[in-house]
Amino acid sequence: MKASVFVGTSLDGFIARANGDFDFLPPGGGEPHGYDEFMASVDALVMGRKTFETVLTLDTWPYGEKPVFVLSTRLLAPAPVGAVVERMSGAPDEIVSQLAARGVRHVYVDGGITIQRFLQAGLIQRLIITRVPVLIGAGIPLFGAVPRDILLRHVGTRQYASGLVQSEYVVAA
Prior knowledge:
- With 173 residues, the protein is of the alpha/beta class.
- It has a single domain (2-126, 147-171), classed as Dihydrofolate Reductase, subunit A (3-Layer(aba) Sandwich), CATH 3.40.430.10.
- Helices cover 20% and strands 31% of the residues.
- Strands 5-4-3-6-1-7-10-9 form an eight-stranded mixed beta sheet, with helices on both faces. The chain has a two-stranded antiparallel ribbon with strand order 2-8.
- It starts with a strand and ends with a strand.
């Protein structure tokens, strides 16, 4: 199974402010920058409970009927009508095995801790990181400490009129 990340960060590498807000990201995602095409390529999403709770504060559920698997040992807040949400728990390799057994071929991994855990387990194959031209100084970093180097191969970088800069990488080893 393929696991990919598509995430926006501040130029200084934060995916959210310390309180979880991501108000520095362009409203509505800003200009088109490949998100819709990326979403069309994935079968399901995996995210942590905190990311899920943050998504619930948005005006609309952004994932349509795409299955969302929320990693948590706690009960989840109610999902919006029409959302397909399921709670799962376990190590990243167990999650991947369970999803693959259900026929999931490409999963979108989202949320800081979840991305870090899947990367450390060697389960992410592709990273698409869109940097927003703003420095916020502190917050939740995209990447935490890693026990070993994770080598990446640069696929390409695109720039957008608004100042967004998006780089794509594949995990080399």
